[in-house]
Amino acid sequence: MQFKHPEILYALLFLIIPIIVHLFQLQRFVKVPFTNVKFLKNIEKQTRKSARLKKWLILLTRMLAFACLIIAFSQPFLSEFTIEKNYNTTIYLDNSYSMQAKGENGELLKTIAQNIIEKNNQNNTNLSIFTNDKSYTNLETQNLKNELINIKYSPNRLDLNTVLLKLNNLNNNKTNTLYKNILISDFQNINRKNSNDFTNVIASINLLKVTPKTSNNILVDSLYIESKTTTEIIIKVIVKSTNNITDNVPVSLLEGSKLIGKTTSKFNNSKLSIITFTVPNSDNFNGQISLIDENLEFDNDFFFSISKPEKINVLNIGSSGSFLSKIYTKNEFNYSSNELQNLNYNSIQNQHLILLNELEKIPTELINSLNEFSKNGGDIVVIPSVNSNIESYNRLLNSLQIGTINSKIATEHKITTINYDHPLIIDVFEKRVSNFQYPKTSFFYKSNLRNATPIIKFDNNESFITSINLENSNFYWVASPLKNEFSDFIQSPLVVPVFYNFAKNSSKFSKLYYVIGPETKIDLLTSIGKDDVLKISNEDREFIPLQQLSQNKVTITIKDNIIKSGFYNVFSNNKNIKTLAFNYNRAESDLNYTDINLIAENNKNISISSSISEVFEEINKQGKINWLFKWFLAFSALFLLIEILILKYFNI
């Protein structure tokens, strides 16, 4: 038995007072003459015994009555809780879009939220809850109900390792506390980084897995432009299913509320279907691809925006490089080439990509301009000359703080290794090639570059083309000249995708669509005043993104501002300069789940629950308090009643 106010129990010490009074109470007896002394003595003995017993009974009942009253005011209770410890229950509720799947009683997230509201009756423990985008600590029952009723799906998703870190952060600041942690999720495979996520769990964790009625999901995965003419654009739309199906799924193309086209996506016992739409080749087209699938709804719509293409400015300094003009064509690029002595330094800051093509020496003025150009977000490609002045090249590299060139190695090497995972190459090849005809170089410059990532390597494992990510830009180093007398690289099929992507990656100009994520950077070909800002808005909200101004563009950084798919307009001085389309990440569409029994089998602190009822039954049982003060009040009244009965019916 425990007490809410144990300090009141000190009042029990005052019960010694009536005992002392009783023990020292003196009572004089009056003598009465009587003829039969023997008979009188018998009566006297009986009376004294009865009187003494009665007084002891009255004393006992009074003391018990007062004792019960004192104990009642100290509020005794029975519970597994102890006064010395706090008990904290923390619930992670997965509100990612995969929880939109339908269970037996509707959407998984909404059903779980309703069950928590119905089953939670904890009034004596701290309850905290966090989702993928919000956290609530020490919620009262009514506040918890309000938050769960209004819970929204989030495009953010947390892997299980991050969930455990957040649990630790929430609990680390509490001392002398016992924790009960509950993870409620569908436990998708994509949310598990590795098999060791739960290896170091030391606190008690309950896992509750919710499962949809069906694991099949049909979604609009992505789209791309197949071809263009002066009047129309051919769009390919990729529709996927998580399982092999034979269904025909109607798919619509809309512009606003206007239906532009409708077709059928045919799955011939497969998971993939590609359909075609034709849209007019106008300056701007904001389209929406839609299908109907009842299991998951967030991936039924796909938004895209086609706008007038923005050309990328590319400047070649040095050797003319005739292959470059064939790669950087007029329909996509503003390409120009200048010899060093004819270079207009004022034009440098207006470029997106600059190529230093086989310069023998890099002058100090150019180094200073390139340093400023790089800080403003411009990308640089350096191709050395056969007689490069290494000292001047190193001055450029040192100004960018990326390392040095060491020496010239006059040995022929083949170019044999492609880094297929590099962002510059990752989308170029459908499959990895191992038997192509290797290009070669007659010599190369050995370098020592910091934070460098090889794109293509020689057969001796030295890097041929290297990329370095700077704070606001990229730097690319080509280890040897590309003239035909020194290398046949420009005759290989690699040269086009590599140099084309040098330019394409130099500017993050508006794409057909963007994926909602923790951070998205977009370059806008516009200029604004020093004190002006760009604003982004849709029909629901407006916000000002982070923005960085440079000579020829504005780079905006969107963090957690966008949580809903659709179209967002970029305004400058109340003028709409761009429309951006955002879509939810399709990773949540993959309805493959982790077997949580495998998680729990190797850790004694992890248990599995089958339902919300089971979870809260255990919590409520652990936190249940049986108050006893009413019983002690009743006993106090009972003892007073017994005293009254003794006084009335116990005859001397």
TrEMBL record:
Transmembrane listed as a keyword: yes
UniProt organism field: Lutibacter flavus
Residues annotated as domain Aerotolerance regulator N-terminal: 1-76
TM region(s), chain numbering: 6-24, 56-78, 627-650
PANTHER family, sorted: BLL2463 PROTEIN
Keywords tagged on the record: Membrane, Transmembrane, Transmembrane helix
One protein family per Pfam: BatA
Protein name listed in UniProt: N-terminal double-transmembrane domain-containing protein
